[in-house]
Amino acid sequence: MRTFVRPDGRCFVSLEADEHELPPGELYAIVDETDADPYERLGFVRQRREYTYVIPVAAIAAELPPDLGMVSAAAADLDRLRKLDDLLRQDLHPGWRWKPDDFQDETFQAAFDPRTYLIAAADEEYVALVRVWRNPGGWRLGFVGVRRDWRRRGIARALVAEVFGVLLADGVGEVTAEIDDENIASRALFEGLGARPVGAQIELCRHDGASARVLVRPSGPDDAEAIAVVQVRSSQAGFAGIFPAEARRFYESRGWRLDGLEKDVESFGIPVTEVRYRIGLR
């Protein structure tokens, strides 16, 4: 088994053949949708899907708004670029924080091309980026994102148009990209450019108490049902954060139902949010 911890603090695993033991704690995995069975047999549950798209490279009529300029990552302030990257990932990966050395290594890896890693900037303020890697297996659009306060101005489309112009000049006919199933804006952008899905990956989680405590008790003297009080660390989750993406699927897939209770409490001095599930015992 291989393990690695991402900059959002989550531990991801990749199972080897016939592997049946896992380290303790909350674990994640990203696998092809057809390869999920071994993980699900070990208690992992599905929580997110992303599709792999093939996007034809074509000329796109789009320009940045006049108050923005374009900078290559090769000439960028790496600290400001790292902070922009962290910020743009929060929608999908709350808590993501690059270490400066790790971000530099990631940015200037072998697949880096300064012509296809571009930043939209308002003076010295970075507001958006697009990143296309030159991988041995083909070009991959690894990331495109725009700060919330700058969205709906055509910035993402203009950045992609600039990169696609470079790729067209190099004779590149297509790129691949992974797009989250719930990222409506990105899907609309690339489907509008003729992208077609060619596969899907899923993110799985084994919820093992790393960010939640579960207290199960009978609801009454007849033991007709049980109550699970789930305590989720407020700093990591809260009911509106990571909890629906992980614990909700975990419990509801096993027949528990949420009864609507939600309150903020302290557990051993740590602020947590409590939510309550019930399940019938008869």
Q: What can you tell me about this protein's structure?
A:
The protein is of the alpha+beta class and 282 residues long. Among the domains are: 115 residues, Aminopeptidase, CATH 3.40.630.30; 72 residues, no CATH class. It is built from 6 helices and 14 strands. β11 and β12 form a beta hairpin. It is globular. About 10% of the residues have low confidence.
Q: What is the fold's blueprint, element by element?
A:
Layout: E1 2-5, E2 11-14, E3 27-32, H1 37-41, E4 45-56, E5 69-72, H2 78-89, H3 100-107, E6 117-122, E7 125-135, E8 138-146, H4 155-169, E9 174-180, H5 184-191, E10 196-206, E11 212-218, E12 225-233, H6 242-252, E13 257-267, E14 270-280
Parallel strand pairs: 8-9
Antiparallel strand pairs: 1-2, 3-10, 4-9, 4-10, 5-6, 6-7, 7-8, 11-12, 12-14, 13-14
What's the quick description here?
The chain is of the alpha+beta class and 282 residues long.
Key features of this structure:
alpha+beta, 282 residues, 6 helices, Aminopeptidase
- The topology string of helices and strands comes to EEEHEEHHEEEHEHEEEHEE
What is the average of the pLDDT values?
A: 82
CATH fold node name of the domain at 58-172: Aminopeptidase
CATH architectural group of the domain at 58-172: 3-Layer(aba) Sandwich
What is the CATH homology-level superfamily of the domain at 58-172? Gcn5-related N-acetyltransferase (GNAT)
